[in-house]
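Throughout this chapter, every protein is written as a compact record of paired, labelled lines. An example of such a record is reproduced below:
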Amino acid sequence: DKEGKLVCDCKHNTEGPECDRCKPFHYDRPWQRATAREANECLACNCNLHARRCRFNMELYKLSGRKSGGVCLNCRHNTAGRHCHYCKEGFYRDVSKSISDRKACRACDCHPVGAAGKTCNQTTGQCPCKDGVTGLTCNRCAKGFQ
């Protein structure tokens, strides 16, 4: 460095003066010192391209059989969940798009008068209609109603 001190050339998504911590967003498993047999590489969190930050959770890591402990923070594009893998309330999943697509979640758009709520089915987008109302967004009178 500038002061003439030796600086480590960190590998395996690590950082710090002694490469003793994982780089930001590489918190899917805990930092461990590398051995001759195992690099113990820090792994990126799986946020499906909807978050820029994550944190490590030891309890989830243990529950997953020591496979994954990353928790995504501040999911964007109307997504939610540990991996930003489902749509937040008021949105449903557009199955024609990959979950990593920015437009994977579409607004429910439930009709303010015909719907019994603003939350729709996460897979179909069907809004809960009041009696005598039909349609995906509850915007039409059912047969026999006017």
